[in-house]
Design a protein that fits this description.
The chain is 29% helix and 26% strand. The protein is α+β, with helices and mostly antiparallel strands and 303 residues long. The strands form three sheets. Strands 1, 3, 4, 5, 6 and 7 form a six-stranded mixed beta sheet that branches.
């Protein structure tokens, strides 16, 4: 059965410090959207039970500027670098009866966009394969975390407050929302963005309460008052993104000028998004942005 491997959005992303273990402490709200990749997996018997076999059949529906990033790690490139392949290899020793895996994937979530494409695909494959293992919930989360910091989120059914390095997840109530995702041709690698932060090293892994998440912000999220988030939930990576690609600042301004009530960079990638006050405002925003930035790709979403 085909399912959606969903893109995620960050409402706010604070990076207070770098941890002694080399990771960065984060504070964010992760939203799971209805925009994503089509994902379907099936098992097949192995000729040699000790030898894992992974197959990928993919369709590349990314914007042209992003297609090569996926092609390089698809079945038409070096498949061993694909996160789906790495996820299968990671979980293979835990399969009660080893099986091969064939994945059908329609790729829409842009790589290096800050919207969790690879992590989402890994989460989808883990959820498919977990019933073939004896792993308990804590072991499943540890395995997911070993693949990528964002992967545990994609095992959840809810939107979450995310702290630690991404592995501390607390479900949060968020109203139904609508918006538009902007996909620039630029790519911003996670490593370069974190390097640009130059956060000081702290030897304690102290995941304190997120001070920005005040009662008024929580209420705004619960009732869908996205205007109440502006100036309160911000992404620390935006300043770096604007320095590297000044036109992204114009993009954010344009999203707001064309009708969005809240706009932000998502994650540490290059994608911006805008939220609208009402569902009926979504299509006019999408059309206005396509007209204003004809060289860019845009996708509508809800959460």
């Amino acid at each position: 059965m085909t399912t959606i491997s969903p893109a995620k959005l960050n409402l706010g992303l604070e990076i207070p410090f770098k941890r002694e273990d080399g990771y960065h402490e984060i504070r964010s709200i992760f939203l799971k959207t209805d925009f994503g990749d089509d994902f379907e997996a099936e098992t097949f018997p192995l000729q040699d039970s000790q030898k894992p076999e992974f197959q990928l059949i993919s369709k590349n529906q990314l914007p042209k500027a992003k297609q090569a990033l996926f092609e390089n790690v698809s079945e038409r490139g070096d498949l061993t670098k694909n996160i789906l392949y790495k996820t299968y290899i990671k979980i293979f020793p835990y399969l009660k009866n080893p099986v091969g895996i064939k994945v059908h994937l329609t790729k829409r979530i842009p790589p290096e966009g800050g919207v969790g494409g690879g992590s989402s695909n890994a989460g989808s494959l883990l959820k498919f394969l977990f019933p073939y293992t004896s792993l308990d919930p804590s072991e499943r989360n540890l395995l997911a975390k070993s693949i990528g910091a964002d992967v545990p989120f994609f095992l959840q059914e809810n939107h979450c407050i995310v702290t630690g390095i991404g592995e501390i997840l607390e479900p949060i109530s968020v109203a139904k929302g609508y918006g538009v995702l902007a996909i620039p041709s630029h790519s911003l690698s996670t490593k370069s963005m974190y390097d640009g932060l130059q956060r000081s090293l702290q030897n304690t892994h102290d995941s304190k309460v997120w001070k920005t998440l005040t009662e008024d912000v929580i209420r705004s999220l619960r009732i869908g008052d996205w205007t109440g988030l502006s100036g309160k939930l911000e992404n620390d990576f935006e300043k770096i993104a604007f320095q590297v690609h000044p036109d992204l600042k114009e993009l954010k301004s344009g999203i707001l000028q064309e009708g969005a009530v809240y706009s932000s960079l998502s994650g540490s990638g290059s994608c911006f998004f805008g939220l609208v006050a009402k569902e009926q405002d979504q299509l006019p925003l999408l059309n206005s942005l396509k007209s204003r930035f004809p060289e860019m790709d845009f996708r509508s979403f809800s959460f």
